[in-house]
Amino acid sequence: MKYLVTDYIPEEVGDAWGPFHGDLKNLHKIMQDALEWISEDLSYFQTDIGQDEDETPENLEEKISHPLKWLAKKSSEYGKYFSEAYSTALLKPGQSIPDNLSVVQKRMIIYQLGGGNVTSILNKLTDQKDAVRLLKYIVSLYPRNPINANFGQRDIVNYIMAHISLNCLSPQNAKVAPLKDLQALCRQFPSDKRRCLPNTLFLLTLLFWPEDEDTDQEKEAKYEIVQSAVEHLEKGYWTKMKDIPQRKRRIYTHFFLGKGNGLDKFVHKKKFEKLTKVFSVSEKRMKWFSGEAWKMPDIAKMLKRVSGWTEDKVVYLEGPRKKKFNILPLYVPSVPHSNENITFYLGFTFRGPVACNILVNK
Prior knowledge:
single chain, alpha+beta, 8-stranded mixed beta sheet, 45% helix, 11% strand
């Protein structure tokens, strides 16, 4: 393990393996990059199982029926391979974390526990068995003062997403950092948004969505951050979709804007699953598109309606003053033909915020 993840080369293989040292030592990073690439793709293409009814049996055999679980399992196995034997103790309740772990060892244990990429972290909101305890472990493996730590972009993203997910499962948990601390950590992201990962841009749209108690100046500053992130998310989206048939260009909504404050205002889509699981996949989609599902009391109680208007069939958000904020409608036929004042629920996707269940103000 020391050979694979450090510069160390045992004397007895120094010459004999000479041509292969670079490839073998790079294997650790290549696998990590591959898992990250798959995770990023699933953030865009994540869809309900069995929705493509026109697939042939031959194509279905090549498909992974549960890609989220598959990636979570592979990421965990990757972490297990590259961590020491004592790391398995962390999976047992009541075990403490050793103090003498290196940065690489901690990162691999984070992978093993399911915190190595955004998709695996969010999958814990679906597979909730023991998820709170594991997310607590994951958070505790990061430096106590992450603002002073030498974090890479991926580490910051995973750290923040672990906190958001832990709060979704266990609100007001003592391990969860306040929203302001997570916003401060975002200062370490590149100022040039072209150098930001899609996950980074997505988090900026979440974390800097204005709060009701913000001053007008604070709201305007946050809207500027969000709009800049959305501009680059949109470019990245079309790069991903350029070779994808139009009928498959669906947008997956990960979170919705709720009525809470701080991290409590982010409602993950899986919170709706138990309310709609009685329906088939096709029934479920039609209920969302028709607006019927949005009227369910438990869903309406969680979400916050925001105000806007339509202009030539384009949806705009009410609030930003310096620059009009165009919000993509999740279901285009729901946009009224005439110019109207409207309200809608707000969803967060890897293409930017989307307007759901658009209603015209009477």
